[in-house]
């Protein structure tokens, strides 16, 4: 009745309004929840994927550190949470070849800051495995994809017209006057000059006219040679920017792209000389077969019945060898440089370079494609020679057949090592033979992109202590497609000296007003691809020749360069594709893991100072046991560091890699015992408990990376027989001084015990009310006297 009363007259209206508002509110809340769960679901998903990737890398690569545990093909969202803008496929088409005016019209600002890795063209039929560095196939909508494909096929690099490509220059190489001038300037000695100008005019002709490897869809390498040798093709030089021919007439723009990043000024040499627009030489066959497998760096398709063959040949190189053999040795690849690169200026009198490829049992087609990409896309007057160092390969085709093939190219020399030396000593052998001013090291499964060389040499020209690296792009190991990588990526390391890629911090980009074309200061180089002035390389003591086979040499040279006065840079206008492989395809004379660990330990001992504890403390304490591993003699390396008056590793961390987290200890401060409610103190060489007082040095302990409980030079050592504790001079190599500071039951830091591993059981450090301050007892998670807490924790 009462309810009825309320529902009469105006009450009824009010009730209706009330009920309606409640319903409305409920709907609203439901909608809000849905959208929230959408957002958080999406975020969660992204985070999970990121984390999964991270842990996958950590677990695999942590155990087997590679020179490149990952590559920046995965889209890197810029710090701050915005998503990386996606490159529309129309833009992707444009990057096949820059298009003169059209290119110029596109402003730098439009350049996506973080270019997502984008397959230049993607085939849906190809099995692109996510997590293998390849972008997910769904990233480009199917219709966009097919549009891109259509466009790509129409892209004939030798035709002119709407797509903006230049008419092929039938007149072989027309050396731009500015460059010719430069060639004349390079060598003061007259006879050298003759040789060089010969290079400028003729070098391409004999090489290219003799036999330019044709685009071929043939599979087997030996067939390749026959076919290739039959073809005598005209040389064509594609000059993507007409202005290049008139480069010296151009008004001098103020130091375009001579952007100094970092502490370059100290080493800079100011020279006055004329400049020209970077050359975009790309010598190609005519007509290129636009339909050839993998042409334009597109993903190549393999039909189902070929899969068996793909699998069978996979281990020859740990990538799709079957497919690689089908792809033309001189295929076109997309010009992936940021837009402004093709207009940047470089000096006319750049130094020349020797390109050094080391290889052991490299796949024929990838080795040749690497060499051809250098011959085809390097200004001849700057390419002194190509040195192939055969690190005692076992494959037959790398012997006489390779000699015969390369005999067509006067600039290519082959050095054969009499026994397996490993990558490091093979490079040293190549360097010792090199005649160029600059050494350019490349892996033997790369494709140098258009305009790759001059921007590297320019940096060395500006400052001989700069060590420039190209942006390493990704040639898919599965479908051999050429993929773009994110901008603003630099090489870094994580503990224990594991190489990786990471975006330049956003605030650094802002503070330095960095553009996509600017050189990027790079704490650690990936290792495979870089240029270094030859004399400077030797001044630095080259590589530590005690490093074996593979691994760690990129850390060594990186620390050495930075700490001894040089700089490593990634040059966004220089781009080289590289096949990242899941495994080393060659054999290690000794155990792989031991070899890499030993190399890293050498690097840590010479360069890391007190920070070497972080290296050993991240899973490498076993290397401290001299009985387990002999890392060899380091006297020479340590002497070198002294002689060069190199900076400390702390300096390196502070100045080169300030965002690196490198606490020298895991925890420190007071050591509080939960049961006693007092702190551990060390006085007159014995342990006691005192009322906690941070100002007392006697109460300060470190929990080190070696997991020692350390007070100055003394460490707490368990005495096994008597279950008592003693103090001993600390010794990183002694495993009996290591304590696990372990959380029990809950993760609350209060519930941490100090556990030591005894012969048969785990024993815990326990505080005592009477008698000696501490003793060892069987671990008991409920015992408060076994719970310890340091004041500060820096790492888990
Ligand atoms: N290499 C060599 N001798 C060796 C190991 C490697 O000459 O003992 C060559 C190898 O053929 C390649 C280069 O060194 O051209 C770099 O090796 P890899 O590509 O395996 O290194 P990653 O790119 O995986 O770091
Ligand atoms: Mn490689």
Describe the structure.
It is a single chain. Helix 6 packs antiparallel against helix 7. The longest helix has 55 residues. This protein folds into three domains: 60 residues; 469 residues, no CATH class; 129 residues, Trefoil (Acidic Fibroblast Growth Factor, subunit A), CATH 2.80.10. The strands form seven sheets. Strands 17, 18, 19, 20, 21, 22, 23 and 28 form an eight-stranded antiparallel beta sheet that branches. A five-stranded mixed beta sheet has the order 7-6-5-8-15, with helices on both faces. It has 796 residues and is of the alpha+beta class. The chain is globular and about 90 Å long. Helix content is 30%, strand content 19%. The site of uridine-5'-diphosphate has 19 residues, from strand 5 and helix 14. The site of manganese (II) ion has 4 residues, from loops.
SSE topology:
Blueprint: H1 2-6, H2 9-63, H3 89-94, H4 100-105, H5 142-154, H6 177-186, H7 190-201, H8 204-210, H9 221-230, E1 236-239, E2 275-277, E3 281-284, H10 307-314, H11 321-324, E4 345-347, E5 353-359, H12 364-377, E6 383-390, H13 400-406, E7 412-416, H14 422-433, E8 438-442, E9 446-448, H15 453-462, E10 466-475, E11 482-483, E12 489-494, E13 498-503, H16 506-511, E14 520-521, E15 530-533, H17 534-539, H18 553-563, E16 567-579, H19 592-607, H20 612-617, H21 635-643, H22 649-655, E17 665-673, E18 678-683, E19 686-690, E20 701-704, E21 709-711, E22 714-719, E23 724-729, E24 740-743, E25 752-757, E26 762-767, E27 774-778, E28 788-793
Parallel strand pairs: 5-6, 5-8, 6-7, 10-16
Antiparallel strand pairs: 1-3, 2-4, 8-15, 9-16, 10-11, 12-13, 14-16, 17-18, 17-20, 17-28, 18-19, 20-21, 21-22, 22-23, 24-25, 25-26, 26-27
Helix pairs in contact: 6-7, 18-19
The chain binds uridine-5'-diphosphate and manganese (II) ion.
């Amino acid at each position: 009745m009462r309810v009825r009363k309320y529902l009469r007259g105006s009450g009824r209206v009010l009730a209706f309004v009330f009920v309606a508002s409640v319903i409305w509110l409920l709907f609203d809340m439901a909608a809000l929840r849905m959208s929230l769960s959408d957002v958080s679901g999406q975020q969660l998903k992204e985070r999970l994927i990121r984390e999964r990737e991270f842990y996958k890398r950590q677990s695999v690569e942590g155990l087997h550190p590679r020179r490149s545990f990952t590559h920046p093909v995965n889209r890197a969202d810029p710090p701050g949470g915005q998503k990386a803008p996606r490159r529309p496929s129309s833009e992707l088409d444009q990057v096949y070849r820059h298009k003169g005016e059209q290119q110029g019209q596109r402003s730098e600002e439009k350049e996506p800051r973080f270019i997502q890795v984008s397959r230049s063209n993607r085939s849906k039929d190809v099995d692109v495995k996510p997590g293998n560095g390849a972008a997910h196939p769904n990233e480009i909508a199917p219709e966009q994809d097919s549009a891109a494909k259509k466009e790509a096929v129409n892209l004939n690099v030798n035709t002119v017209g709407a797509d903006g490509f230049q008419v092929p220059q039938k007149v072989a190489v027309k050396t731009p006057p500015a460059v010719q001038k430069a060639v004349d300037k390079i060598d003061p000695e007259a006879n050298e000059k003759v040789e060089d100008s010969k290079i400028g005019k003729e070098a391409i002709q004999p090489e290219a006219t003799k036999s330019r490897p044709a685009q071929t869809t043939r599979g087997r390498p030996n067939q390749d040679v026959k076919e290739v040798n039959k073809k005598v093709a005209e040389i064509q030089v594609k000059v993507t920017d007409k202005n290049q021919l008139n480069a010296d007439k151009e008004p001098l723009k103020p130091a375009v792209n001579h952007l100094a990043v970092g502490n370059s000024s100290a080493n800079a040499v100011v020279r006055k000389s004329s400049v020209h627009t970077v050359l975009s030489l790309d010598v190609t066959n005519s007509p290129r077969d636009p339909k050839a497998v993998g042409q334009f760096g597109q993903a190549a398709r393999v039909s189902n019945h070929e899969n068996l063959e793909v699998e069978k040949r996979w281990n020859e190189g740990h990538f799709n060898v079957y497919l690689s053999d089908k792809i033309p040795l001189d295929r076109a690849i997309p010009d992936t440089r940021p837009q402004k690169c093709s207009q940047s200026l470089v000096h006319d009198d750049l130094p020349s370079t020797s390109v050094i490829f080391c290889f052991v049992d490299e796949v024929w087609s990838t080795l040749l494609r690497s060499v051809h990409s250098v011959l085809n896309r390097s200004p001849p007057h700057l390419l002194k020679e190509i040195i192939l160092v055969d690190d005692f390969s076992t494959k037959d085709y790398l012997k006489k057949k390779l000699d015969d093939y390369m005999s067509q190219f006067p600039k290519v020399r082959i050095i054969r090592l009499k026994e397996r030396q490993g990558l490091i000593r093979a490079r040293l052998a190549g360097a010792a033979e090199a005649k160029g001013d600059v050494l350019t090291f490349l892996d033997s499964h790369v494709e140098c992109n258009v305009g790759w060389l001059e921007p590297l040499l320019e940096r060395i020209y500006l400052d001989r202590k700069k060590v420039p690296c190209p942006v390493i792009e990704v040639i898919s190991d599965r479908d051999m497609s050429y993929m773009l990588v994110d901008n603003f990526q630099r090489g870094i390391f994580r503990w224990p000296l594991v190489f990786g890629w990471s975006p330049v911090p956003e605030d650094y980009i802002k503070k330095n007003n960095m553009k996509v074309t600017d050189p990027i200061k790079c704490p650690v180089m990936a290792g495979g691809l870089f240029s270094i002035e030859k004399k400077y390389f030797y001044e630095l003591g080259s590589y530590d020749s005690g490093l074996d086979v593979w691994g760690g040499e990129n850390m060594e040279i990186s620390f050495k360069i930075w700490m001894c006065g040089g700089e490593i840079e990634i040059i966004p206008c220089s781009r080289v594709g590289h096949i990242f492989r899941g495994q080393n395809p060659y054999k290690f004379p000794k155990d792989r893991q031991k070899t890499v660990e030993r190399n890293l330990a050498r690097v840590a001992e010479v360069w890391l100072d007190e920070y070497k504890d972080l290296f050993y403390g991240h899973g490498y304490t076993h290397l401290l046991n001299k009985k387990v591993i002999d890392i060899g003699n380091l006297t020479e390396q340590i002497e070198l560091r002294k002689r060069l008056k190199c900076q400390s590793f702390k300096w390196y961390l502070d100045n080169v890699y300030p965002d690196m987290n490198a606490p020298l200890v895991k925890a420190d401060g007071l050591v509080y015992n939960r049961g006693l409610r007092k702190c551990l103190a060390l006085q007159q060489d014995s342990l006691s408990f005192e009322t906690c007082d941070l100002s007392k040095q006697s109460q300060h302990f470190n929990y080190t990376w070696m997991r020692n409980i350390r007070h100055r030079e003394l460490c707490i050592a368990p005495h096994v027989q008597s279950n008592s504790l003693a103090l001993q001079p600390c010794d990183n190599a002694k495993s009996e001084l290591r304590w696990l500071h372990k959380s029990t039951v809950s993760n609350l830091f209060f519930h941490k015990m100090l556990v030591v591993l005894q012969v048969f059981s785990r024993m815990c450090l326990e505080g005592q009310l009477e008698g000696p301050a501490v003793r060892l007892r069987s671990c008991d998670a409920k015992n408060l006297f076994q719970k310890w807490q340091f004041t500060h924790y820096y790492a888990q």
